[in-house]
Amino acid sequence: MRTTYRMRAGRFLGILAAGLIILGVAAIVWAFGLPDVVVSVFLTLGGLVVLGGLWILVWPPVVAKLRDRDIEVRGVRTTWTDITQVGRVETTHGEAIVLRTKQRDHTVLLPVGWLPPGRATQLETALRDRLNAAHGYTIWDGTAPDDDDRAE
């Protein structure tokens, strides 16, 4: 099973706004009576930027893909058995979810501000659940084991 987490779409409204500004410049250039080639260049450029802005608002970039055997964060794959810890840290860019691995210099950060509201805690819970499953851990429900459930 694969779960995909995407960036917050609102981060990319500036691209759409820039395209609309370029289209506005095309209208001003047309109103001043500049050659049609100049107007068509601004119209084409503005239209392409608006289309790109709409595209990225509908399908924001992928931040993380959680699979059964590994996790892919911004294009870098790491197996669940290589991850030792999931937590939150404060960075210079705000709060981030951190994945600590067995390799000393291979810590993966996921800035919380990149995710839509409410998805950060959902991602953190999913990360811990998959990490526990990969290492064979279960959550103890507080009950005593049965007599036939012997330690290995």
Description:
With 152 residues, the protein is α+β, with helices and mostly antiparallel strands. 39% of the residues lie in helices and 25% in strands. It contains three helices and seven strands. The strands form two sheets. It has a four-stranded antiparallel sheet, with helices on one face. Helix 1 packs antiparallel against helix 2. The longest helix is centred in the first third of the chain and has 23 residues, at 36-58. The chain is elongated. The model has no long low-confidence stretch (mean pLDDT 87).
What is the rounded distance between the termini? 30 Å
Q: Order of strands in the sheet with the most strands?
A: 1-2-3-4
**Count of distinct strands:** 7
Main sheet specs: 4 strands, antiparallel
Cα-atom radius of gyration: 24 Å
Q: Low-confidence stretches at least 5 residues in length (pLDDT < 50)? A: none
Sheet-strand content, in percent, reads 25-35%
The helix/strand series, from N terminus to C terminus, equals: EHHEEEEEEH
Structure classification: alpha+beta
Considering DSSP H and I runs of 4 or more, what fraction of the residues is helical? 25-40%
What best-fitting shape do the alpha-carbon axes yield? elongated
Helix run count? 3
How confident is the prediction overall: mean pLDDT? 87
